[in-house]
Request: fold
Amino acid sequence: MEKIRKNKKVIAVFLIPAVLIYLCFELIPVVMSVYFSFNDWPGLQAVPLKFVGFKNYSNLFHNAVFLKSLQNVLIYVVVSVILQVPIGFGLGLLIHHFKKGQRFFKAAFFIPMILSVTAVALLWNFIYFPTDKGILNSLLIKIGLGNYIQQWLVNPKTSLICLIVVSTWTSVGYYMIICLAGLTSIPDSVLEAGELDGATGWKKIWNLYIPMLWEPLKMSTIMVITGVLKIFDTVYILTPTGGTSNCTIVPALLMYNEAYRYGHYGTGSAIATVIFVLSAAVSIFSLKLMNQKESIEY
Amino acid sequence: MKTGKKVLGAVLAAAMALSSITPVFAADKVKITFMSRDSGDTPMAKVYEDQIAAFMEENPDIEVQNDSVYEESAYNNKLKVALSTGETPNIFYYPAIAGLKEWAQNGVLLDLTDSLNEDEEWKNTFLDGALDTYDLSAYGVDGIYALPNELNVDAIFYNKALFEKAGIEKTPETMDELYEDIDKLVAAGITPFGVGGKNTWVMGHIFNNILAKRIGRDGIIKLGTGEKKWTDDDVVECLQITKDLKDKGAFAEGFEGMDYNTQMNQFLTGEVAMISHSSPIIPEMFNSESEILDDISFFAFPYFEDKPEYKDTHVVYTSGWMLSGTMSDEEKEATLKLVKYMTSKESIQERMNAAMRVAPYKDIDAPEDAPQIFKDMVEYTGTITDSVGEYFDYDTCSTLVDTSRNGILNMMLSDSAENTAQTIQADVDANRPQS
Reply:
């Protein structure tokens, strides 16, 4: 048995199904998408691809809507990283610290994560409803801030941040769970030794928890970045047309419109490729930045 | 144990062998696919299911697969994937006219001219001029590429009780009368129009009616073919009239951020006096539990006194069935058989009775037990002699629908009519295919 297990041919045979699935559903579509991006195609089998070189890319980077979508998604990424990871990990640390009601709070913060995006969008539609009947607006009126009531999802100044709030509310539970999982793997002896050396309160968080949770923090940050760069569902349901003056348009929504609504498959594929390259570049940059600080081995 | 395994092996092998034989038997049947937007529990979906079942019973050599999808984006995605893989459904629906040009040119759609000419009786069941809707010769492709199936007739639906409360004795025929009525409703503390601006088509429909009443059918077609520009004075004027409605207090505060469901809820609970909509809203309203259904009626979109020549131009959206252009002879024969069955007088009447949809066929009457508003709508449809669809139906620029509707919403919020016209024209110039 041991001999069979060490046989490389046997290992290769068992790996074939996984490799085939990866090739068919991950690698080949990515390569095909890049290939399509250098062609014009109206989405009809009867029409052959027409090679156009970098024309689709050139058009994209001269397209004000696409540039606006890049600007929006980069704001989305930066604000999401600033909000989602610290809030998620902060909640994790709080729940870990206050043992009472731990199960309840874990479930309460994680529930938004398992709700369908449509349900979440409906809920937030009630909150952001544009008149004084909206939950947020009526709350503002009740606390005497009636001057600040808004058409939250329509006003170009507020709509993008409103979407970021929804994404943050949905996602923080996930990063809280990652933090809690990381915390359980820290030996008590290390924490006790730190406390004996005077690490309490913020010092404990800064000098013990953060260095020891550095790997989960890095992973969470990359997940936020890659997740937000391809964000589609929340934006599509809350602001289906990309908002007033394209204030909430993001590349994935534009890609969907170009390919499936307008029949510009080459342009859609070029946007998909840009999202892919951007995700890879931003992730590598973030990893390099975060790798400058070494995590603590214990 | 060993015997058990052998038996199991034999059973599995037999099952596999049988499954490979089954297609041979199934191959005797001609399989065709039907794809509409009516699926699930809607009354129309039920009628389609029954009619397809009855057709298959009459034609045991034909198997019809109903691939209908209710949700719009899911339907469009499914159709586009089917077209890109060459698996075009035999009968399907798509909301476009000029947009069909590329499909027609590339053989995706069947030219129905010969089939219609070969069967005069069938051809004559359609309302006069209805088949012209899908005659694409104006766009450079000769032929009729779809069969009109439903008519969505635009009108203003209103609440009689709220009109009475505001002291309005008769429905407006001209825009000036409509403006007076808006003033009366506002003075009585009633919001004149319910508008779910977040669903950009709602304002788009209002603008389309204004366009129809100011530049007429020819003007709209010229706009689509590029003979007219969005920046022309008369088109900018239409945008400005649409924007001015807001300043006249026609819409509720914050309507730009409300959705269509809110608009309908406001109308059906008697919060607002009017909505601009089309005939399919009638069954939708009667499927609701609204207590004001008896108070609802409709009137034609008012005309402009300085443009009497377009008084009788009405907005009617035609929904059609397209047939695949890549069928084998056998499939084509079976598909035409099905489509003729579905467009027979009995089938159409059955669908109208069940789902209250206005159909572009001769000699079809509203059912006796239908609500009065539907009977009135069928009668009103019969009086229409000059109709026009959505402005983007006549344009081959696929991005126009979104750019124009988003532009109109931006205009209602802050942008000027001139800037909106320039933005739309720039999009058309950049994205309209050069033929």
Chain A has a mean pLDDT of 90. Chain A has one domain: 63-289.
